[in-house]
Amino acid sequence: MVINARSKRLLAKIDPHRLPRHVAIIMDGNGRWAERRHLPRVAGHRAGIDAVRDTVEISRWLNLEALTLYAFSKENWKRPKREISFLMRLLREYLRRELERLKRNNIRFRVLGRMEELPPEVQSDLEVGLRETAVNNGMVFSVALNYGGRSEIVDAVRRLARKAQTNGGDLSQLDESALEQELYTAGLPDPDLLIRTSGEMRVSNFLLWQIAYTEIWVTPILWPDFRQEDLLEGIIEFQKRERRYGGLRA
Ligand code: FPP
Fold this sequence. Notes:
- By secondary structure, this protein is of the alpha/beta class.
- It has one domain: 3-Layer(aba) Sandwich (Undecaprenyl pyrophosphate synthetase).
- Helix content is 44%, strand content 14%.
- It is built from eight helices and six strands.
- It has helices at 5-11, 30-36, 41-61, 81-104, 120-133, 149-166, 176-180, 228-240; strands at residues 22-26, 66-73, 108-112, 140-147, 193-196, 215-218.
- It has a six-stranded parallel β-sheet, sandwiched between helices.
- α1 (5-11) runs parallel beside α8 (228-240).
- The mean pLDDT is 96.
- The structure holds farnesyl diphosphate.
- Farnesyl diphosphate (FPP) is lined by residues 27-32, 45, 48-49, 52, 69, 71, 76, 87, 90-91, 94, 143, 198.
């Protein structure tokens, strides 16, 4: 990827030994980006694809272990039908266009959310992406789709309860790590850094369990304008934080 001059200056401020392992992003502000340009909302979603591409590339270039983007929440079904089908089409288009690049860059694609409730044609494109990148062992790129943090926990608890039932009601193995293994994110480290664009100070039902100790950085930039240098700024901010996990200063 091409690292621009501003990113080079920012990179000089980043300690490569203290990078976040996992960055999660709430992509927000597509609608406002479009409104400011007197364009339909969906133009903001389309422009958001360039930001997705740039973010995936710089994350891979930095050799992050995991990048997770919040693309469609369970609550997003409340949006107008036209906007929903545009988003679904955009996602399919993205996958078809970018799959080769993901493969070339050794990126493993993953979906977080109730995939089985998505339209069948979306599911089948996602399946192709999952299957064709399954052997990759570089960065894990997860897209949260039809995702809700609370329902993720409910789904995990259901599976645990079913397991307990088959074990004659034995709950002795039920601990935090058992629950984590049933979450959509099983096997991924918890996010170290959660970025939200467009200035909103909300978590919006995203990775509720996983962000217990995550550093949060909110930027006023609207998602379609988010680029490599913005991710680097978030990482610089992250490296200024002192993470104590409830303990005392080192
Ligand atoms: C939030 O902006 C953004 C979304 C709900 C959709 C994000 C989806 C994409 C960028 C495209 C598909 C994603 C991938 C990973 C290929 P908003 O509409 O809530 O903005 P607003 O708050 O300004 O109205």
